[in-house]
Amino acid sequence: MADNLFDMLVFVRVVEAGSLSRAARNLNLSLAVVSRKLARLEERLGVRLANRTTRTLTLTEEGDRFHARCTRILAEINEAEMEVTSGKDTATGLLRVTSTFAFGARWLAPLLKEFQAANPGLHVHLNTTDTVTSIVEAGYDLAIRFGSLADSSLIARQLAPNVRVICASPTYLDAKGYPGTIEDLLLHECIVYGEPPLDHWTFLDGRSVTIKGTLTTNNGELAHRWALAGGGLVMKSFWDVAADIEAGELAIVLPGVALPAAPIHAVFPHSRLTAAKVRLCVEFLATRLKAQAKSMPFLAEHLR
Quick check: 270 and 156 in contact, CB under 8 A? Predict the structure, then answer.
């Protein structure tokens, strides 16, 4: 078992270094030893992990997946040792977080910076994407997501309430008018986004309308910017547009028609349940985001 772990460590260091020769220097081993250990690992697994020369290295598809798993295993071993020596209430090691681009940039990035500053032994990596990926396969410790949880193999903890709103810029509404009913949405330019793009909006009472528009994107932040520029109506999380609504740059339409709530959740694998860095980060985010939600009158009004 110890040899297997060391072979995994060598493999990770080779990938990080980008070549066998640099990894050998970093590990203070000979090139022959590093090459032999990588070959032994591939032989044991029965797959080729990387195409390499002494100067370059390119992971195969199997190697890429194995590297993500090895990195996670080695980080957990390191974290286990740190928790024994530092106590269970210390966030240490590498915390890998994923979230949507807009929420990650506006809210999560500054909060994670604050959390890291309070835990000097912690390193944080934040990945932002509007595409929902498997956090287990991608090696994330924590995902921040909106709405209900589809995958029951994961644990979800609600961090803060949230509602979605349909909004547009005053410039667009002055030119095209305010929709008075759900059916009026058919007469408007609606910005379509998502992966794949969501071409219908469903309301809390079960009604649904197929939307149309000339602007389509896979990126929610681009859709937001188009709305600010007068491109049409957009449905967004209130957290994404609250500042623009307060500044008068966006206006809510159909405020009396409820959309399904989409609470903000922290999502993580069962294997991360006892990790101090995950537990403490979730508690920190919940405290900060719930406090922020209380300062948003519109959000509080629509969640009574």
Answer: no
Please give the Cα distance from 277 to 78 (Å, whole number).
12
Considering the segment(s) 2-69 as one domain, its CATH architecture is Orthogonal Bundle (1.10)
Q: Are 155 and 269 in contact (CB under 8 A)?
A: yes
Q: Which CATH superfamily is domain 87-160+263-297 in?
A: Periplasmic binding protein-like II (3.40.190.10)
- Residue 233 near residue 227 (C-beta atoms within 8 A): yes
Collapsing DSSP to helix, strand or coil, 149 comes out as: coil
Residues 6+ apart with CB under 8 A from 124: 94, 95, 97, 112, 113, 115, 116
Helix (H), strand (E) at residue 142: strand 142-146
Same fold, 2-69 and 87-160+263-297: no
What digits encode the pLDDT tens for the residues 172-205? 999 999 999 999 999 999 999 887 778 889 898 8
For the segment 260-300, what is each residue's pLDDT rounded down to a tens digit? 888 999 988 876 556 888 989 999 999 999 988 888 877 66
